[in-house]
Amino acid sequence: MEEKKQKIEVIYKKAKLGKRMLAYFIDIGLFLLTTFILFSIVNVPVTNSGWFISKRNELTQLRNDSGLYINGLVVTEYVKNDTEFPSYEAKKDELSTRINNFYNNTTYFSDLKVIHSQYDSRRLSAKNGSLNLFIKSGDEIIENSVNAELLYNFYKGEVENYTLGFLVQNPTYFYLVRFSFWVSVIEFISILIITFTIYYLVLPLTCFKRGRQTIGMKLEKIGIIGVTALNVPTGKFIGRFLFNFLVFVVLDFIGFLIPAIISITMMYFNKTNSNLTNYVFNDYAVDVTDKEIYLNELEREEASFKLQEISIENKDLRLR
């Protein structure tokens, strides 16, 4: 008659909620810190590469040609702080000249008449109380005899509310601005994915494979077990990683951390403190302070056999 296989009972304590939260914040802190450090390091050669400098110089040239920038600063900021323009009279004259030149620049406008008509309408409607800031003199619109600061404020508003907007609408300028932005975004996302993969997949599969631990879990002595009370298999853990990336990185970003809030809330309202990932993959976070997680069934059987040998040699120990 075949001998019945002995049942091996393994008991783990659930990981306390406080320890799990601390491990979570340790991991998030290290992940974000590493991401920003790597981004800062990688960004230097990227922004100093020939192709990037070429695009940046093209953007700078467009800004300078528009007359709305001086030495990299918007003209309103430049005249506001530079000693070259000590009075409101000098400031408003500089802004007026640059606005007129911009509105006569065919690089940015195909129909100058429409732009001039709109600008003239804004000037004629500009008032300080009942006093017009501009008046018509024949076919021209000229400044009225008013305080220079009032005229400066009008021109300043014209630059900030209109001319800069027209500049951005220029197809070439818009492309170059978006180019610089998207290079930084793609660079950051790439580094974020690499860092996330290292912290949440590579380390748990290599350095801390017993219990599939992250650095925070290792410090807080927390491990992950499946329903068999063994280590989570590699294939299942990779699926677990992809789920975490999709939900807690992609959807968290789109959904303003709603998935993370749901997951943390779940931990408060169930007996095993299981979060969303534990629930979906049917695994558990356990305390490994006093007990290791078995990698496989063979390792668990060997540990049980050794325990039986010790129990036979020591009369104070009893087999259950």
Topology:
Elements: E1 13-14, H1 17-47, H2 50-66, E2 69-70, E3 73-74, H3 75-81, H4 88-103, H5 112-125, E4 127-128, E5 131-132, E6 134-137, E7 140-143, H6 148-169, H7 171-205, H8 215-220, E8 222-225, H9 234-254, H10 258-268, H11 276-281, E9 284-287, H12 297-313
Antiparallel strand pairs: 1-9, 2-3, 4-5, 6-7, 8-9
Q: Report the helical percentage.
A: 55-70%
State the secondary-structure class.
mainly alpha
Mean pLDDT: 90
What gap, in angstroms, lies between the N and C termini? 24 Å
Describe the global form: elongated
Total helices: the number is: 12
Describe the structure.
The strands form four sheets. Strands 1-9-8 form a three-stranded antiparallel β-sheet. A two-stranded antiparallel sheet has the order 2-3. A two-stranded antiparallel sheet has the order 4-5. It folds into two domains: 13-47 and 190-313, no CATH class; 60-179, no CATH class. The chain has helices at 17-47, 50-66, 75-81, 88-103, 112-125, 148-169, 171-205, 215-220, 234-254, 258-268, 276-281, 297-313; strands at 13-14, 69-70, 73-74, 127-128, 131-132, 134-137, 140-143, 222-225, 284-287. With 320 residues, the chain is mainly α. It has twelve helices and nine strands. α1 crosses α7 and α3 (75-81) packs antiparallel against α4 (88-103).
Comma- or semicolon-separated keywords:
320 residues; mainly alpha; 2 domains; three-stranded antiparallel beta sheet; two-stranded antiparallel sheet
Q: In short, what is this structure?
A:
The chain is 63% helix and 8% strand.
